[in-house]
Amino acid sequence: MGQGVLTEPFAQRDGALFCEDVPADAIARAAGTPTFVYSTAAVREQYRRLDSALEGIPRRIHYSLKANANRAILSLLRELGAGVDVVSGGELARALRAGFTGDDIVFGGVGKTAAELREAVAAQVKLVNVESAAELVLLDEVARAAGAVVPVGLRINPEVQVENAHHYIATGARGHKFGIPFDAAGEVARMAAAMANVRVTGLDMHVGSQLATLAPYREGLARLIELARELRASGAPLRYLDVGGGLPVAYGSADASPDLRGFGVLIREAAGELGMETIVEPGRFMVADGGILLTRVLYRKESGGRRYIIVDAGMNDFLRPSHYSAYHRISAVRPNGSVVRADVVGPVCETGDFLALDREVDDVQPGDLMAVHGAGAYGFVMSSSYNGRPRAAEVMVAGRSFAVVTARETYDDLMRLELEDPDWRDA
Ligand code: LLP
Q: Is residue 316 part of a domain?
């Protein structure tokens, strides 16, 4: 795979969009559209940037694979030295298949089933991040049945106010469903101390996603440190400080780029003070800018004074614009220099099916290709086959080479799990 360090993984060259050294139209010819395209060099570069901001700190970057669980991305990050953060049995299975093993994995999530807890115990993960007293009781039982003592991180809701791009991605404020409420944490830790098959070795938080400033990290960490001191004093063998994900990317000019240096300083102070190993769980930061969604223009039309550009990618392929009102830059693969004001919409039968509303975009015609930028995170993983639309293909690029790493779904795939002859039983 390519080793080149790029500042711009997707750039216009001689009038056409390239991913690294591969022309986007060559990818569309080979793989069709819509297709997600990922740059190996971009992911490498993000890993390197974060890792060097944390230099000198005992740490591990556990990539949050919910952002993009593609096997090629996972293998790349594993080669770079990352671990993973998983939130379901399905993600655990994916991580294991990509070659991650026990100590590489932290397992989080607010609603783990008994089966998922058994899978986490069997995989001997580094930490099961527990989000409630009831989950702790169940985990202790599951661990006892397996004859194991399980390392537990207590996911604390530090109850900090977070300014987010969208309230759906804020997680660490008072009353959110995530984590153990800060004032209940001591009690849950005491419960854990009295259990034979769990051992609290970590404290964990995740205050939100696309965090515009470091303030929520700073405030959350202050609370975690306060708690860590208390728990240490009562004998808890705390080893890991898991600060969650949330590092932002600049989707549009109004978004902040992450202050990585400041982040490093903050972590250094917090972890240094406690002598704990830091775990970071970045998802979006690692992959968002390393991906585009390639789509082809189908039609143009006007209706009631609005101009529409209808493309072959819809909300089923890329949900972020519709679900979070997220801004994603959209450009023509071969811009002709002029722009129009239009809505860029998909083929799905929903008014909420759009990629951009009332936006000045390149003046494209049917048959032209467009790229939706910043689509490497929370893109393909959130896609569905709604409206009978097979899910998109995924392509990985490394230097001058590219490969289809996930084939486009077929109509047969869409119906594969339907039973021709269902087994009806009497209740
Ligand atoms: N750790 C935990 C416990 C999380 O819940 C999340 C994300 C992460 C790490 C990674 O966060 P990141 O570094 O990517 O901000 N679908 C939404 C984002 C949902 C994030 C959920 N949790 C979106 O498209 O914006």
A: yes
